[in-house]
Amino acid sequence: MSEPGLRAPAPRVVLGVAGGIAAYKGCELLRGLTESGHDVTVVPTASALEFVGAPTWAALSGKPVAADVWASVHEVPHVRIGREAGLLVVAPATADILAKAAHGLADDLLTNTLLTARCPVLMAPAMHTEMWEHPATRANVATLRERGVHVLDPDSGRLTGADTGRGRLPHPDAILEAARDLLLRGERGTDLAGRHVVVSAGGTREALDPVRFLGNRSSGRQGQALAVAALGRGARVTLVRAHVDLPTPAGVTVVEVDSTADLRDAVLAAASDADAVVMAAAPADFTPAARSETKIKKTGDGAPALELVQTPDVLRELSATRPGGPDQVVVGFAAETGDGDTDVLTLATDKLRRKGCDLLVLNDVGDGRVFGRPDTEAVVLDAEGSEPTPVPAGPKGVLAHAVWDAVTRRLAGS
Ligand code: CTP
């Protein structure tokens, strides 16, 4: 596996902030972007500065805030900022900024920058439901999307006043995930367009009684990253998640499950018309032979014996039955530590054969690596026994794209 630390510098990001109450959530997004190593130039509109002042943006980005086309005119800031950016994110994107961007208006630094930027543009809308649903906004969003601008759908929930509905700014983590995905996707385009893919994520729980369960520490981050990456590459995505405490990715069909048996049913149902299924979840392997309907009580000394039975092996069943047809691609994950006698590659090769899947992603989790960490590194093995493909250390999105690269190659029959 590769040496950690050998990474290309993170691209420059422009964060445009339009004038809405959700501007304060842009601070959290900015922090996430800078913590990911990006050099971020914040370009607030004049009305955004009414909500959050320039000193806050300057402090969080570590550089002066650019808000005015008339400042530093000699260096033509809108052209310089637009050209240098690897990604332009607008959050919150108000109805006004969507309209201006759709019509090519340029009356301040942000709208000028939007016209000069040649990098991917991501817009995260926030406005009242009526404004989001207005035919003018719908048409503007459709125009922008047709031009390749990535406009996220706003979340539903509590709005500024007492009202609730669609129009909330997507969670900063979801915007960050979409931003990272756009940067990672690079030249891949929409090579999964017209495909349906199913991803499982998280850790299942097996109930002992109404209050206790057997579970595991899987965070579901890798599965989420896979879902977001596939969505960005044009796929229709079903994400079957078990106890994932992360915002639901916009545009993904999410099915929430509890136990391994639930996960099996949901994955098999979704897989019936899927081109590929990626089992990134950590299903519990054992479940109590009987679930107590009432809370198990202490009875004198000694602890009750737990009788466990095996849960269904979803990956093995999928591989054997291929519910989506014989060409369906099935991918498993394996987190291995090696055991002194046998190295991780041998264990993973055995697992791939045992499970019968087409591809197996091996995470070496010896010495505390990978689990619970935002970064990962892995190798991808295939059923033909080809030379394993190493995936260098990096965010889980890097591995997600490497998995979809391998899947698309199989789907294309190469
Ligand atoms: N998996 C599954 N159903 C299960 C257990 C695991 O589909 N009941 C899938 C996981 O989603 C993963 C792969 O199988 O893609 C490997 O998971 P792992 O826990 O390593 O496999 P086990 O079958 O538990 O293998 P072992 O106990 O031999 O390590």
Task: Outline the secondary-structure elements.
Blueprint: E1 13-17, H1 23-35, E2 40-44, H2 46-51, H3 54-61, H4 77-84, E3 87-93, H5 95-103, H6 109-116, E4 121-125, H7 129-133, H8 135-146, E5 150-151, E6 155-158, E7 164-168, H9 172-185, E8 196-202, E9 206-207, E10 213-214, H10 221-232, E11 236-242, E12 253-257, H11 260-271, E13 276-279, E14 286-288, E15 308-310, H12 314-321, E16 329-336, H13 344-355, E17 359-364, E18 375-382, E19 389-395, H14 396-411
Parallel strand pairs: 1-2, 1-3, 3-4, 4-5, 8-11, 8-13, 11-12, 13-16, 16-17
Antiparallel strand pairs: 6-7, 9-10, 14-15, 17-18, 18-19
Helix pairs in contact: 1-3, 1-9, 4-6, 5-8, 9-10, 10-14
Bound molecules: cytidine-5'-triphosphate.
Cytidine-5'-triphosphate is lined by residues 260, 279, 281, 283, 285, 311, 313-315, 332-334.
